[in-house]
Amino acid sequence: MAYAKALFYFFRLLLLINLLTLSFCDDTAVMSKLLAALSPTPSGWSTSTHPCLWDNVSCQSGKVDTISLASHSISGQLPSDLTQLASLRKLIVQLNSLSGPLPSFANMSNLEELYLDSNEFSSIPQDFLLGLPNLRTFSISDNVKLNPWQIPSYLAESTSLEYFSAINASITGVIPNFFDSFPDLQILRLSYNNLTGSLPGSFRSSEIQILLLNNQQQGLSGTIDVLSSMTQLSQVWLHANAFTGPIPDLSKCVNLLELLLSDNQLTGVVPVSITGLKLKSITLQNNNLQGPMPEFGYDFKLDLGNGFCKDTPGPCDPQVTALLAVAGGLGYPVTLAQSWQGNNACNNWTSISCDAQGNVITVTLRKQGFSGTISPALANLTSLRNLYLNDNNLTGPIPESLTTLPNLQVLEVFNNNLSGLIPVFQPSVNFSHGGNLFLRKNVNPRGGSPSSRQNSGVPRDNPSSSISAGIIIVGLVIVVVIVVVVVLFVSYKCYMKRQHKMKVSVKGTGVSIEIKKQDIVDCGRTFLALEDIAIPIQVLQKATNFFSQENVLGSGGYGVVYLGKLDDGTKVAVKKMKDGATHTKGMNEFQAEIAFLTKVRHSNLVALISYCINDNNRLLVYEYMSQGTLGHHLFEWEKHDFDPLTWKQRVTIALDVARGIEYLHSFAHQSFIHRDIKSSNILLSDDMRAKVADFGLVRKAPNDKSSFETQVAGTFGYIAPEYASTGRATNKVDVYAFGVVLMEIITGKKAVDETLPDETCHLVTWFHKILRKGHNLRNAIDPTLDLDDQTFESISKVAELAAHCTTNKYFRRPNMEHVVNVLGPFAQKWKPLRPEEIEEKYGGLDLHMSLPLAFHDSSIESLSFKEAQLNERRLNQSAQF
Question: Which of the four pLDDT bands, split at 50, 70 and 90, describes residue 619?
Fold first, then answer.
């Protein structure tokens, strides 16, 4: 009896402790506010009982752990106090009629699951998902009333994420490149939004199995090559977008069951490897696919809206197969895909001419802005007489197989970025290859072409062609003597070179590099061309203190930029490309940037001083701009201990940048589009004058076309809307980006700032709204500026110009000549230099001269008086604009 009585009191004590714990629970007040905000009151909820006793609410240690109200037909709003539920792990409120702004869930470190689907929420705060390290599931699909919002970059901190669903949820902007941060993410559902840009490269390192990105309003663009590395994929929906390029090899995606690619702009031949997958569903309709129709062994409608060579599976005509391989080397451009359809290359195919027998005799692909390589498959067009590939952006070698074409008469490949050895063609071939800086001569010690030697028609066992043994011996002795003499001579020259140093100068930049000639000899074999500006790796290692962290000036997707100090004290900026630059694409971009910077020279473009290729190292050496970037002075001036820029400094910087872009568009030997104009790519010198930098994305614009198609590139916030949606670029994409820079100069705000509220985070939208609604422009101007009436009038005019530059209709944007004319009166007055001042200021350098010529002092020193006058006129012309 005594034992039972003791047990009774023990349980009463436990119950009392539990009740005391519940009574002191901090979650009661928050849950009461939630109850008051919902209508009707959820079943089993009452203020007269503790929240831990409510239906669909569970607790751990007296703290609310889970709220599950899915499909309860409730309306109202979620109170902002929810963030005080510190122990909340799951919030499940989908399939209701909840409205109003969503609360912030920032720093709820225990939150694991958040289901908000199928409600009527109106907006999302900036820090919505900030600081949620344990978040595993996030679902906000079918919230059509949400204001436009972007996937926040800080979500990368939620490394436990496994499921992300935001279908039809008003998402805009680009897909962030942070998916290598989620080792457990398997499902990504973002269909029916307004995402733009390309698929992020970090998809390659992700574990995503289900990828749903279909039906974006403007359409995602670029290629879908990243899919080939996502071997764990099982379901891919990319239909109804604007993807371009070929379907990649998906042979490693052995788990793939659904592949929906219809209604895009895909081109090229469907890889045979896809037919070997165990697909249950595939759609390819309404693209620009070419070549043989794939055969899957079951009935799929694939031909609608494509250009397969036949209506049924089977091989194409040999000439068609060869030409499609040519298009493949160029990345299967849409312009060719829309014409190169069917099984007869002589039936109105663009750029193709045939003879009366139906043999392809001419391929004309000049001045198309094509990139990629020259396909060896051209050798399969055995009747080919004329091949025109000049004035493009082609890289890689000229295929040796082209020398086997028996009827070839004309081959033009000049003005590209080709590299490697120059093949030896028959003398009858009119072969033009100038303007390719990385081509090297194919030295033939015996003379004649390889083909003529291989087909000499002299049998090796023909007695009539034998040579006496004595003559052979004499010939061998002569050859040996010559070789010995050459070796001794080369050794002597190398010895002499070791004893001397040479100085490489870039006039106009004030940079002079003194190096041993022997270093150049040792390193020259890897420099491809332009050995007069190549620099040994040892010099750069010493200048940058072996690329130490203390010398880092900045970094980005390209690699790292280091401060270098040469032996004479001259400072330079050394860009060291990432190790990934050693693959073909990276090497092509490296070559292309050198090729561009050696062809253009202007006082408002950062000058290339030198470069180096050594083993896996790819380095570019630029003039050093001591005051950093415009972005540092506009947004981080306090951090870098700068004084705020005055309006006069800002408008002068804007004019400098405008002149640099104007030169690229109109005054260079060829029209170029920069494609990445932004404040961080504008560098400032000691006297706060600006130069445009970072030419890795520059493209040569076709002379005979107003636009050309290319993969969308650039930085979000500066990308013109028509370029993001179509992939077609004009020089107006630079005008748009420059207009964004003008807005940054006026306001001191970034192009995109996720720390600001939704209505102000996107600078262009906010700025246009201010001008359109007649709001007080003074309130938008950077508060660090001293405003008087004259300054405000100047800012107002520049603000109007910025608005014109960023209008959605690209054809309504001004050209850069007009921009320079508008900015000129507001900047410091400029007067042309006298001839004697040109020599003093620029060292006699013609700023429009190509870089290789600038390295030959004799060429500059021997300028005639007429040439000097021409140089002055060019300088004056630049100033007048």
Answer: confident
Name the region of 54 (left: φ>0; alpha: ψ -120 to 50; beta: rest). Answer: beta
Q: What is the pLDDT of residue 98?
A: 96
C-alpha–C-alpha distance, residues 292 and 312, integer Å: 8
Which of 220, 244, 263 marks a domain boundary? 263
Which residues sit opposite 559 in a β-bridge?
556, 577
Name the domain count of the chain: 5
Instruction: Look at residues 766, 727, 729, 763 and name the one whose alpha carbon lies nearest to residue 748.
Output: 763
Q: State whether 337 and 389 are in the same domain.
A: yes
Among candidate residues 572, 601, 623, the one where a domain is terminated = 623
Do 529 and 676 fall within a single domain?
no
Contact 62, 85 (CB under 8 A): no
Percentage above 90 pLDDT, the chain = 51
Report the range of poorest mean pLDDT among 540-549, 793-802, 824-833: 824-833
**625/632 Cα distance (integer angstroms):** 13
Q: What is the pTM of this model?
A: 0.56
For tokens 């390029």, name the residue. 245
Structure tokens at 401: 């197989």
Q: Contact at 8 Å (CB) between 261 and 285? A: no
The residues, ordered by sequence, that sit 6+ positions from 730 with a Cβ below 8 Å of its Cβ are 673, 701, 706, 707, 810
* Same domain assignment for residues 101 and 154: yes
* Closest by Cα among 620, 705, 716, 711 to 676: 716
CATH code (residue 255)? 3.80.10.10
Cα 23-28-31 angle, rounded to 5 deg? 160
d(CA 526, CA 539): 16
Widest pairwise Cα distance in the chain: 131
- 143, 167 in Cβ contact below 8 A? no
Instruction: List CB contacts of 798: < 8 A, sequence separation 6 or more.
Output: 651, 654, 742, 745, 746, 822, 823, 826
CA distance 101 to 310: 55
**359 and 422, same domain (yes or no):** yes
What is the Rg, in whole angstroms, of the alpha carbon atoms belonging to the chain?
34
In whole angstroms, how far apart are CA 538 and each of 22, 519, 547, 571, 645?
72, 8, 11, 16, 39
Structure tokens at 88: 């909340």
List CB contacts of 46: < 8 A, sequence separation 6 or more.
54
Q: In terms of domains, do 660 and 753 share one?
A: yes
The SS3 assignment for 281 reads strand
Identify which of 119-123, 464-468, 615-619 has the greatest average pLDDT: 119-123
CATH of the domain at 576: 3.30.200.20
Known catalytic residues? 676
Stated length of the chain: 881
Tens digit of each residue's pLDDT (9 = 90 or more) over 143-199: 999 999 999 989 999 999 999 999 999 999 999 999 999 999 999 999 999 999 999
How confident is the model at residue 669, as a pLDDT?
79
